[in-house]
Amino acid sequence: MTTAYDAVTTRIADPVVDVILVGHSVGNVCLGFDDHFTGQHGDVNHHLDVVARKGPAPSL
Fold first, then answer.
1. Closest CA to 5 of 44, 41, 34, 37
2. Is residue 14 part of a domain?
């Protein structure tokens, strides 16, 4: 398991991990809030949509 909040991290992690976590810590990790409780559900859902949309990396 790893945590991802963006498309780049998702594409790197997807082939090698079983679970990608998008947690409420997005508030202080990505959005600059002082704590992870300040972010709203909409903030988490936005990043969840990004991670879900990117899926597996294309084969090279």
1. 44
2. yes
